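INTERNAL AUDIT FORM
Audit reference: QA-55
Scope: verify that the stored structure record matches its stored sequence.
Auditor: D.O.
Record contents follow.
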Amino acid sequence: MHPEYVDMFTRKVSINPATTALVPVDLQYASGSRGHGLGALLARQGRLHEASYRFDRIDKLFVPNTLRLLKAFRGAGARVIYVTLGHELPDFSDAPPSTKAFFQATNNTVGQREHDIIDVLRPEPGELIINKRTQGAFASGGIEVVLRAIGIETIVVTGVSTNNCVETTAREASDRGFGVVMVSDATGTCGDEMPELTLTGFRRP
């Protein structure tokens, strides 16, 4: 049961197109496609069925709803700032221990297809892409400098995975004074329980 007193301390956030940015996180072939990266790895191991929830949610819910958000933000003249995850040096030496094994297993290297943003969600000309090497975009991506430079006060976060890179980025932003909205039906992860617990907990970031 969610205790109601928690809601007394939840920050109220308003959406102003002039000061709000949509921040899609890790919408990449490395972790968001059955045929690449994680999907290809599991298929080779005969375990792709273990990720059926993940990829079904991405295909049927996450992608369509993210497309709606992209259309709305672009139509309102609001900023869209993409965040990607991946290393840049060929020997993986720029990757921290927490993400290095994933990068290696999914071929998530800048310049490789797995690092690319899924085509249907790709950025339009003039939209920034900020690469990170850690789960949170503020720890290694330099996104804070960009947001403050262009006058962003609130971010709307989507992406994969809900309980990892999306939540970490959202909490980092909140700790730095930004208003944050996590879109429940435009994030994805490995099962029902993880996103539900994450989103419930985020009501008091």
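Auditor finding: record pair retrieved intact. The chain has a mean pLDDT of 91.
Action required: none
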